[in-house]
Write a structure and sequence with these properties.
Blueprint (H helix, E strand, L loop, with lengths): L10 E7 L2 E2 L3 E16 L7 E17 L4 H8 L2 E5 L2 E9 L6 E2 L11 E4 L12 E4 L2 E4 L10 E8 L2 E5 L8 E9 L4 E12 L15 E7 L14 E5 L1
Antiparallel strand pairs: 1-2, 1-13, 3-4, 4-15, 5-12, 6-11, 7-10, 8-11, 9-10, 13-14, 14-15, 14-16
Protein name: Major tail protein
InterPro entries: UCP028589
Length: 239
C-alpha cells in the first residue's frame, strides 16, 4: 500500500541541465496552461451539459543567480567556445584618446603589452602613453599617441570562454532538480524530460546588487514514454 505523505514544505535544491550543475537557482516554477471546451445545456436551467479540459502547454521558468557563460547560453540560445591563452602579435588598432581601443581577445593584464606606432619606430610607455584593461588599451591624451593614429598592440590573451549569442535554433535539454524539503529534511527529485528554453527578455549586467536572470521555456512531451499512467512531461518523487 502506498504511503500518503502530508507535510509542510520549504523547497531547496540543486538544478542540473543535461547533468551540469547550474549553480545557485533561486526560483523554479511550473506553469500549466489549460484549454476548456464546453457544451451549453439547452434543456433549461443554464450551465453546461459537457466539458472537456485539455493541457495546452507546460512551461518551466528558472531564476539563475550564477552568471556563467553556460547558463547565459541557455537564455540567449548561444554557443560557448573555449578560448586558450596565447600570444597576439601586432594587432592593428586606431587610437581613440581617453577612450577604449578594444582588442579581438581579452588581454591578460598581468603581462605588459607592447604598443608601437605603425612603422615600429616608436614604442609607447605603459601608464604614460596608455593604460591597459582586459578589454583593450586606452591611449592617454597627455601621452605621445595622437587621436586617430594607427597603432599596433602585442599582448598575451587571457584563457577563458566566449559566448556567441543567438546562433542556435533552440536546444532541448533534460532538467533534474535534486532537492531537499528544508522543513523536514526529506529528499525530493523533479525530472523534466525535455525542456526547450526561450531567449530571455532582459539581462541586467551592471548593477549595485547581486544579479539574476530568468529563463522560461516549454516542457515538451517525450514521445519515447509510452507506458500507461506515466507522464511524458515530468515526474516528482518525494520521500
Amino acid at each position: 500500500m502506498s504511503e500518503k505523505v502530508t507535510e509542510s514544505y520549504i523547497g531547496s535544491g540543486i538544478m542540473y541541465v543535461d547533468g551540469r550543475d547550474v549553480g545557485n537557482a533561486s526560483g523554479v516554477k511550473i506553469d500549466i496552461e489549460q484549454e476548456t471546451k464546453s457544451q451549453p445545456n439547452y434543456r433549461g436551467g443554464g450551465g453546461n451539459s459537457a466539458e472537456v479540459t485539455k493541457i495546452k502547454s507546460v512551461k518551466l521558468s528558472v531564476t539563475m543567480n550564477d552568471f556563467s557563460n553556460e547558463n547565459m547560453a541557455l537564455g540567449l540560445r548561444g554557443k560557448v567556445e573555449v578560448v586558450a591563452a596565447g600570444a597576439v602579435a601586432a594587432e592593428p588598432l586606431t587610437a581613440v584618446l581617453d577612450g577604449l581601443c578594444d582588442t579581438t581577445k581579452m588581454i591578460d593584464t598581468s603581462v605588459a603589452p607592447v604598443v608601437k606606432n605603425e612603422d615600429d619606430s616608436t614604442t609607447y610607455v605603459l601608464n604614460d602613453d596608455y593604460i591597459v584593461s582586459a578589454g583593450g588599451i586606452r591611449p592617454l591624451s597627455a601621452g605621445a599617441i595622437q587621436e586617430g593614429q594607427a597603432i599596433k598592440v602585442s599582448y598575451t590573451s587571457k584563457a577563458g570562454n566566449a559566448l556567441q549569442a543567438l546562433v542556435e535554433s533552440g536546444k532541448e535539454v533534460k532538467v533534474v532538480i535534486d532537492g531537499i524539503n528544508d522543513a523536514t529534511g526529506k529528499p525530493w527529485t523533479l525530472k523534466f524530460y525535455k525542456w526547450k528554453p526561450s531567449p530571455t527578455s532582459s539581462l541586467d549586467l551592471i548593477s549595485d546588487d547581486f544579479g539574476s536572470f530568468d529563463i522560461e521555456g516549454g516542457v515538451l512531451a517525450d514521445a519515447s514514454i509510452v507506458a500507461t499512467g506515466k507522464s511524458k512531461f515530468f515526474v516528482r518523487s518525494a520521500a
